Amino acid sequence: MLLALDKVTKSYAGADGPVPVLSGIDLALDAGETLALTGESGSGKSTLLHMIGGLDTPEAGTIRLAGQDVTALDDRGRAALRRGTVGLIFQQFNLIPSLDVAANIAFQARLAGRHDPARADRLADALGLRSQLRKYPEQLSGGQQQRVAIARTLAAAPALVLADEPTGNLDEATAARVLDQMLALVSETGAALLMVTHSAALAARMGRRAHLSRGRLA
Ligand SMILES: Nc1ncnc2c1ncn2[C@@H]1O[C@H](COP(=O)(O)OP(=O)(O)OP(=O)(O)O)[C@@H](O)[C@H]1O
Questions:
Q1: CA of 23 to the centre of ligand 1 (A)
Q2: In this model, does residue 35 exceed pLDDT 90?
Q3: Is 19 inside a domain boundary?
Q4: pTM for the whole thing?
Q5: So which domain of life are we looking at (predicted)?
Q6: Ligand 1 pocket check: which of 45, 50, 89 to mutate, most ligand atoms within 8 Å of Cβ?
């Protein structure tokens, strides 16, 4: 089992006391599996991804990832997890403004000690970034920046890709093509993919689907 969540619970402070967001989430994901996570705006999808990626901590419950208890790690341990095991693709692309596209794509793979120029090239081609490699993030459109962020994560070949609406800035045809690439790469490396999406068409192409509502997964 690559990822196992056991009774993960989280609430945020509200005006009248704590407001529960996640109420005992159980979830298991094997290497190679792909899961679409759907749910209304505000249902807690990003909160769940942040906790799996070690960016936030649950109040109760445990998250085991690649044999480690994420909830028991200190800041350094969680940073190491993000560097080596998890790839995060968020709605904010967090590209490095002083690096060109090629260097942005290679950045995480280098940190993880897994830079493979051939894989980086292949991803740049597959995601339609070949002619953008010497440009800087500010010279790109939102959709191009999003594709660089996706290429950067996949180039590092993480065991688990966590993606929060990774194709939200792309038109339907480009989104479908980018998902093809994500699915091809995770299948090639045996990674698992957990992707938040509002698109039923994209969700239908994932191996499994889970819906988050009222703090619970169904
Ligand atoms: N740091 C925070 N402090 C207080 N409340 C928060 C915080 N982060 C999230 N929330 C609340 O928790 C709930 C879940 O937020 P979250 O961003 O996880 O939802 P989501 O399903 O990802 O939504 P969307 O689809 O709109 O991105 C929301 O009601 C939000 O207001």
A1: 14
A2: yes
A3: no
A4: 0.93
A5: Bacteria
A6: 45
